[in-house]
Amino acid sequence: MSVFLISAAGLILLTVAAGLLRVLRGPTAADRMMAAQLLGTGGIAGMLLLADASGITAVVDVALVLAVVSGFAGIAFARGARKPDERSEP
User: Fold this and answer.
1) Which of 53, 51, 59 is nearest to 6 (CA)?
2) Are 44 and 70 a contacting pair, CB within 8 Å?
3) What is the dihedral sign for C-alpha 17, 49, 77, 72?
4) What residues contact 73, with CB distance under 8 A and at least 6 apart?
5) Would you kindly state where each structural domain of the chain is located, as residue ranges?
6) Alpha carbons 4 and 56: distance in angstroms, whole number
7) Left (φ > 0), alpha (ψ -120 to 50) or beta: where does 78 sit?
């Protein structure tokens, strides 16, 4: 079973590498942010698969922290992507 989990993690790693290319060459900021979200999600999935395959439970904690950071990054992008006239005055 662990061979299957490691090979699935490798497949996800290939997907993350393709997303990294989109982060570097994305035509718009939205494309880059969506690719960065893919990196976060793929990283979490790969870590959880490797944690289950290897039995190292600390990797699950790292994946959870990455999930929180990825969520905050998405929120920060959405708040910064609004038009200047839609922003609230401090």
Assistant:
1) 53
2) yes
3) negative
4) 33, 36, 37, 40
5) 2-80
6) 17
7) alpha
Phi, psi values for residue 28, rounded to 5°: -125, 165
- pLDDT tens digits, one per residue of 22-69: 888 878 888 888 888 888 899 899 999 999 999 999 999 999 999 999
> According to DSSP H, which parts of the chain are helical?
2-25, 29-54, 58-80
Distance CA(88)–CA(39), nearest Å, equals 31
Give the pair of three-digit tokens for residue 4. Answer: 């299957």
CA angle, 39 as apex, 87 and 50 as ends, to 5°?
Answer: 140
CA 78/CA 64 separation, integer angstroms: 21
Evaluate whether 49 touches 6 at the Cβ level (below 8 Å).
yes
pTM of the model: 0.76
Q: Which residue has the tokens 């996800």?
A: 12
